[in-house]
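tool_call: predict_structure(chain=1)
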Amino acid sequence: MNETIRYRMSERIFFKVWNKQTLTKTLTLTSGDQTPLRVAVNKKVVIGGFFNKKIHVWKRRTGEYVQLVNAESNMIYSIKASGDYVATSLVNGVVKIYGMEPVGYLLTLRHTLHTGGNGASICLCLA
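tool_result:
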């Protein structure tokens, strides 16, 4: 990937997407929430996992805001995106797998796993 994501905390969170080769800003993404914990990026979307148990989704190419997922039961410990899937790990040990629509990029919960422990690091690898 030729882009990098930076964010800073303020009254409104915004993510700036920069081209690594030209050092130019390509997108600025905003949400009404504060304190993002994790950010995941793939070729289709930029996903922010927030302190308040919310997930925000933006289209990577255009910066268009796609969706607010308000389905998490606890703080997000880790978030990963790969292909058409997004995985979250919560601080209470719950891991959730979301499927992503191929056109609209909306997330739909597919699986929930209870690990029985604290937050787990996740690696989303697809064959």
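agent: The first strand starts at residue 3 and ends at 8. Proceeding to next step.
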